[in-house]
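Below: protein 1.
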Amino acid sequence: MAFNPVVDEEKCQGCGECVDVCPVEVFELQGEKSVPVNAEECLGCESCVEVCEPGAITVEET
């Protein structure tokens, strides 16, 4: 099973918590927003979802 992390740019505040917590470095800050640059590496652990206070991140099963 594969996973696809999605960031809602309107909700993202660019705090970088998801960048710090992701064990496989899926996210990167670009222009003060989080971008899933290595989405194919996502393990589906949802650590990023848990630390995202504005609720900007979802992880979809593909």
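Below: protein 2.
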Amino acid sequence: MTGPRIVVTNDDGIESPGLVALADAVSDLGKVVVAAPTADMSGSGTGIGRLDSHGVDMNRVELAGHEAYTIAGPPGLAVMAVALGAFGGPAELVVSGINAGINTGQSIIHSGTVGAALTARTFRMKGMAVSLAESDPWHWETGCEVARSAARWLLSRPGVPPVLNLNVPGRPLDEVQGVHWADLDEFGYFRVANTEEEGKRIQFGVSSASTGADPASDSALCEKGFVAVTPISPMSPAPFPDVDPSSIWPG
């Protein structure tokens, strides 16, 4: 198919059902290329892993009729490779997901799903991350419908707008309450770390009384049944402190 090049990636790995579903969902919007990690790389953020002179393993694979590649590294590396000429060259849009589970709050900096979209933005490509709240059964079809519509909207926007982070409620589309701009929650779900087994293991707690307390947050809105959409930008310099930087000099 002709049209804009769209790269689909994720951090759950090439075998994730959300990856295939997402590639299918946006395939009518342009030329889709899938470039995803060989294995689960959740929690990799914008990382690209360790690079050396031997390069990184990559393989062409069959994936439901899509042009698809696996890469032995996190999704940020796959996106960087696209931007630097691999897999046919830069894309107009990078869509990351559909992640199995939401990515909300300040903790999204640790998400490989969101990290891939942020990496796209640093290379002047449009980026979007899509995550789906857990349910039984999973409502991948809802995530797909939302992703397709949001991708079409992004492609129609001039220039390179902020990255969109979408969190989709785990329910049928006709039960979704609508779409809402959302603030980032205070942090997210990871709040507690306890050592176990004589200090040989760290167990992370995944709940917090403050998570979702702000009704305008992405966590709260998604839980209420809204598609929570948060525009985010890659790292940028903060305002300079109102002090002479020479005070930083040793001595």
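The longest strand covers residues 93-100.
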